[in-house]
Please model this.
Amino acid sequence: MGAVETTTLQDWISRFGAAIAEKREWLTELDSAIGDADHGANMARGMTAVSEKLGAGAPTGIDDLLKTVGMTLVSSVGGASGPLYGTFFLRMGMSAGAVASLDGPALAAALRAGLEGIVARGKPEARDKTMFDAMAPAVDALDETLASGASVAEGARAAADAAAAGRDATLPLVARKGRASYLGERSAGHLDPGAASTAILFETLADAIAG
Ligand code: ADP
Ligand code: MG
Ligand code: MG
Model:
């Protein structure tokens, strides 16, 4: 019960792209405070390229879908976020494999593999004020919720809530990774833009799974 199909994940990617387009200015505003004011533009450019690529033909399975998303982000986004999100989707696809559906534990394992890809690439640690601070609690919350016997939909909702809380918790932090770290103490008092886009990633996943 509650398997996540290829079409559910396609819906996720399309919802994520739409939400990024809608929140583009906000993401850019966040990045203008502690970065170089391009996070909204970077993510919107990447997700527009993803939507064009996916429009060209139906994916053969979950790995094909996620690898296409990952490769497109890596090749179309110049900033730090392109390789990081690209690696997330590539690793998630490799973990999922050539299947047409994932049960809760397989989805959780795939998301964790994606998170580990980000860690391998960017070396973020907890409280460095990066996308990791939204993603790690989200993946943990999914594991914990599933372990308590909840459905994958309930798990994805708990993950979205944890990602939003993780995003909010970046506000007082002093950045230790990425461009924001150049500001030192002046990076405190602002949300991390990548944590904000990651909260959108998990919110749209929960919405797609809820249907
Ligand atoms: P750039 O900083 O190159 O302009 P973006 O503005 O698109 O790229 O993305 C910035 C976001 O990338 C940050 O808000 C942060 O969440 C994330 N980020 C930057 N460096 C790292 C890193 N080493 N590890 C994890 N996330 C990082
Ligand atoms: Mg930037
Ligand atoms: Mg930049």
